[in-house]
Amino acid sequence: MWGIYSLAWIVYAILIAFVVQFDELHQGTFKYGAAFRTVLTTLPQTFILALIWPLSAALVKAHVSTTRLVSIHFGCTFAFATFWHFFSIAMYIVFIGYPPSRSISWYIWPFLYSMMMYGVIASIFHGIRASDARRAQDLAFSHAQKLLVSAELNALRNKLNPHFLFNTLNSIIALVRKDAIAAEAALFRFSDMLRYILKSEKNGDDRVTVDEELDFVRDYLNLESLRLGNRLQVEWDIDPLTTALSIPALCIQPLVENSIKHSFNPRSQPGILRIKTEMVHAENSLRVVVSDDGPGADLSKITDASGMGVRTIERRLQLEYGSAAKFIIATAPGTGFAVTLGIPYQ
């Protein structure tokens, strides 16, 4: 700021030096000595008016009222104009000599000009401080918003983990009653899945690659296949270019779990679960589609439902990516159920 302030005053002083010699320039002459004196007598204002900056800081810190602020600056304006008036006369006497008799207007206009100069500088300085205060306020608000989003994301993740554990343990319990050996194998898979969850929590960052999330989904499907058997048929359509992309942990598995719960558990006939990932270059996003050929549902009832898994994923994407994320449910009675995620990538 001070560099711009100094440069502006230098330009102003040089401009004044040319203005006061306008007639000489018109006649093709220029008095360098007079120009130097003009610059020399103009620049001291730079240092005097710079004192308004710490004064404005003290006034802002004291939280003075607008009326008192204006009163203080008005007094300072008068004091500066008076000082500069006598200072200018002194400089005139030093460099030129005693001034001849002048009309009162010759003294009034420079006095008013000095008052105006103080007012302009004071307004600029207070404007800068107000802008800095607004910027700091916006920064603090943005930081608070990020903390709020982070807290809500953690809360959502903490809801998802017990939700997953509860449902998976129920599946294992159901398997124990049917096949103890398969249940033992399921418990080993379940331990691997727990490591995945604990790893993301330990790191304090729930970002994983698509490949890591899909490995977790495969473990989950292998566990469920021990219970469902041939009823669960999975079709994978994974774009190799998507596997290294970063996504929130547990953003695909709850969608798969939702299909298992609503499309495979209630019926005895085989069904197909499809998992697809692809790059959408036009939108700079990753598209993930989890769909099944189950009984489907009424979309209006889905919108009003208070289920944990699917709606939690939608909220997490909104918090992390805002309007850039997409969460689309496509379903109707008898047409299956599909959820499409659009996750921006950089």
Number of domains: 2
The CATH level-2 architecture of the largest domain is identified as 2-Layer Sandwich
- Low-confidence segments, given as residue ranges, are none
| Number of beta-strand segments | 7
Task: Write down the CATH class of the largest domain.
Answer: Alpha Beta
Number of contiguous helices? 12
Major beta sheet, specifics? 5 strands, mixed
Widest beta sheet: strand line-up: 2-4-5-7-6
Which structural class do the helices and strands define? alpha+beta
Query: Quick one: overall form?
Result: rod-shaped
Fraction of helical residues? 55-70%
Q: What Rg, in angstroms, do the CA atoms define?
A: 38 Å
Ends apart, CA distance between termini? 35 Å
How would you spell out the order of helices and strands? HHHHHHHHEHEEHEEHHEE
Overall pLDDT confidence? 80
According to CATH, the homologous superfamily of the largest domain is Histidine kinase-like ATPase, C-terminal domain
Strand content: 5-15%
CATH-defined topology of the largest domain: Heat Shock Protein 90
Commentary on this structure:
This protein has 346 residues and is of the alpha+beta class. The protein has 2 domains: 2-139, no CATH class; 179-344, Heat Shock Protein 90. 66% of the residues lie in helices and 13% in strands. It has 12 helices and 7 strands. The strands form 2 sheets. The protein has a 5-stranded mixed beta sheet, covered by helices on one side. Strands 1-3 form a two-stranded antiparallel ribbon. A hairpin with a 5-residue loop joins strand 6 (326-331) and strand 7 (337-344). Helix 7 packs parallel to helix 9 (210-228) and helix 7 runs antiparallel to helix 12 (309-321). The radius of gyration is 38 Å and the shape is rod-shaped.
